[in-house]
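Action item from last week, closing it out:
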Amino acid sequence: MKSFLLPATLALTAAVGPAHGYTQVGSGYSQPVFLTAPVGDSRLFIVEKGGLIKTQLGGTVSTWFDISAQVDTGGERGLLGLAFDPGFASNGHFYVDYIDKTTLNTVVARYTVNASGAVDPASARTVITVAQPAGRNNHKAGWIGFSAADPGQLYIATGDGGSANDPDNNAQNLNTNLGKLLRITPDAAGGYTVPADNPFVGVAGNDEIWAYGLRNPYRTSFDRLTGDLWIGDVGQGTREEVDFASAASGLGRGANFGWRVREGTVATPGISDPVPPNLTEPVFDYGRAMGGTVIGGYVYRGGADAGLEGTYVFGDFVTGGIWSLSGGTATPLSTPFSGFTLTSFGEGGDGALYAVGIDGNIYLLAAAVPEPPSAALLLLGLAASGLLIRRRRA
């Protein structure tokens, strides 16, 4: 991926599609690279490249987690990913993906919040490490996440380790975890086990690998409704690509997305490797007229914007363009803010969609309709009210 340390010289592209009521909701962050929240949580959790995670609730911003002393930030290194355990509300577990300052390797670790909601530093448990090539500070990917369609399994996106044309051919090498989508089951005490249905269990290849042939899948996501997988894989000099795998068809189990042989839907210039059989082609790719570094996004499920509902929203770091993808067609969205360099999209706990800029600004792209309380909650509320009335009469 192109370095996030580049100066923010490009404004977002001119409006060519319908506006969606974009609203600036945050500013002053230091190189933010991701935004997320546990389902149902009203706070926003903003990941800063330098090793901080901050929370924002309304206009109040607080530092929630700090591992800056452990994080190397050279080039595309840094604190790059955050995922909340699906049971976070009860177990307090969350996971981070960062480049370790001492080893320069990728570390995925689990932490736990205490009864007061603060992170307990002593709760750190290393889940997995991925060795990175020495002397290369790009293509570190960094996304981690859970799918509603595959409970309990942690997915980890890794880049090919850097340099042009994947010189070690890591993405096609099934004996390295670079250039892959990994799938593991985190253990309670740290470490992990490998799910028995991973595609390379019992055959040649690393057991952790779920899919391969990726260059730098910096931003990936699961559809919060269907569990479908979407990957924004950053290209090299020719094409940017969006990959897709439905939950119904197995979330891309064993898929080969083509790199380094293929860049998007074309043969990678300068690479003469034989084309592997049964490649999984991207659902969308684009050339340099449209942009130069894809920023993978989300299928919008917030319910407040009918025009975006159910479409995949993604963007580009170089041009700042934002598009809505549906049926293989990408529709440009208007971008009425300038001086903003897109580095990530984010999804709130309610399904609202946000855009994150390396310049420190955050925009709400599409709000979410509040979910009505469930029948169980209504009954609980009625019971509590009745109890209160009886107590007052006593």
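Closing note: The helical segments are 88-91, 375-393.
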